Amino acid sequence: MSFKLERVKTGIPGLDELLYGGIPKRNVVLLSGGPGTGKTIFGQQYLYYGLQHGEPGVLVALEEHPVQIRRHMAVFGWDVRKYEEEGMFAIVDAFTGGIGEAAKRERYVVRSVDDVMELLDVLKQAIRDVGAQRVVIDSVSTLYLTKPSVARSIMMQLKRVLSGLGTTAILVSQVSVTERGFGGPGVEHAADGIIRLDLDEVGGELVRTLIIWKMRGTKHDMRRHPFEITDKGIVVYPNKVVRIRGDRIQIEEA
Ligand SMILES: Nc1ncnc2c1ncn2[C@@H]1O[C@H](COP(=O)(O)OP(=O)(O)OP(=O)(O)O)[C@@H](O)[C@H]1O
Ligand SMILES: [Mg+2]
Question: What pLDDT was estimated at residue 1?
């Protein structure tokens, strides 16, 4: 019996070739990085690419107001309004707790933002309603910041729902600027994949880089590559790599 691995394209220019075609379907991928490294933009770009290619999606908003998210996405030309109206896209509002005028217009609202069970219920409903194939949670760190001991169990519950319903998910994980890890042992091992985004100062200039740390079910590129955020979103340079020469980091042709 032959088994063909189905893959989901990230749609981020340059990245899918580093993944030998894309993320294996149903994988739950941790997207880890410090502040301002591009995690939110990455997640939104992944969802919007899906929408443009007929794959419905759900974005779970824990860090920003849904109204602000729509506005920020529109800056990159990613207008999700029409997809929401068509029933292909949903934002789960786990930010406002239903407070404020704007929140009253949201369709998927988590009333107690600290209640993971309620969040899972609302998320399941949204996934079923739109028939989501892609899900982004921005960020999962918010779910267990004050209770690291339950991080793994929250992660496993999320995996069961996300993978179980057939979605391929990106879970944004916040780490501090100096932290080498990806969000704690409980979540790092439970995740099917880890993509790490970094921002480093090289010769007085900030350079963005990305590395695929793990991806269950596939071969993947093992080198650190530079990327940029442009007015159309993230662009990864697969033919450029970051090398350490002595105590300096340099960008060279691969
Ligand atoms: N239109 C744009 N063009 C180029 N770069 C942009 C644009 N908009 C934002 N950026 C860059 O992207 C950064 C923000 O990226 P993003 O919001 O994805 O970070 P993040 O990793 O989610 O950070 P945090 O963990 O703080 O939420 C900004 O600091 C800026 O450097
Ligand atoms: Mg963010």
Answer: 63
